[in-house]
């Protein structure tokens, strides 16, 4: 019988241990647990706001990129402005700059100088038709320039026979 009591005693002790091992939280433990969970949620929210928020890290890096691009544009425009200021200063100070502009922009030629103009038009062979020109007008460019009734050039009004 002693063996049976031992078995009964063991089974009752085992049942009491199972009941003791069950989860039971004290009010202070629950308070600390809720405080830790709340702190983790607030920390996660602040991290999200820092990285992805309206004024967060990514928005700051995008603004820095835009700022760098604008500074490059401003530097290029400042160089153009400096060139224009120097040009205005030269125009106000003497006739050399005015003559240079007249030569470049208006084609001024002094007496005794020879004027040579180089064509910048693209070279086109006789068989090729330039882009944007239809074939009929490219093969017969003088049609319609001379009026058969009057014998005058349509653009200048000068007669081809008399030289008037």
From TrEMBL:
Membrane topology of the entry: Single-pass type II membrane protein
Function statement: Essential cell division protein. May link together the upstream cell division proteins, which are predominantly cytoplasmic, with the downstream cell division proteins, which are predominantly periplasmic.
Protein's name according to its UniProt entry: Cell division protein FtsB
InterPro entries in the record: Cell_div_FtsB, FtsL/DivIC
Localization terms from the record: Cell inner membrane
Family the entry assigns: Belongs to the FtsB family.
Keyword Transmembrane applies: yes
Spans within the Periplasmic topological domain: 53-164
Keywords of the record: Cell cycle, Cell division, Cell inner membrane, Cell membrane, Membrane, Transmembrane, Transmembrane helix
One GO cellular component, as annotated: plasma membrane
Membrane topology (Cytoplasmic): 1-34
Coiled coil segments of this chain: none
Lineage: superkingdom: Bacteria
UniProt keyword annotation of Cell membrane present: yes
Assembly and interaction partners: Part of a complex composed of FtsB, FtsL and FtsQ.
